[in-house]
Task: structure prediction
Amino acid sequence: MDAMQDSRVNTSYWALRTTYVLVPLLAGLDKFANLLTYWPKYVSSAFARILPMSPAGFMRIVGIVEVVAALLVLSKATRIGAYVVMAWLICIAINLASMGSFDIAVRDLAMAVGAFALARLQEARAGAPARVHVRREATAPV
Result:
């Protein structure tokens, strides 16, 4: 059986795709409403000092990036969107770690791994050839 026809692979793909559309979309939109939390508190003080705007203004830009990433995952550019989400989550984790919020940073890193898995599943679904690493034997000089 083709791995892409396996329902376990298909349901995993759709679970990840749904997650990485909904979570960035909702979090991104909430950057304008602050209903889930007051987002500017998650900007590290060191980073806030170098921003050319207020943390609240910066978080609105973050919200736009998150909405765009969610729309990319939703579109035919799922793979690109998943890699954008992955990179974005790593950046968020770095910011959180700089604030000492290691528990939340670890959660975001775990979510980044899920976004990576979605990108790789999309590549497999699209029939992109896998890279094969050939192990070369060491040869003695003649």
Remarks:
- The mean pLDDT is 89.
- The radius of gyration is 19 Å.
- The chain has five helices and no strands.
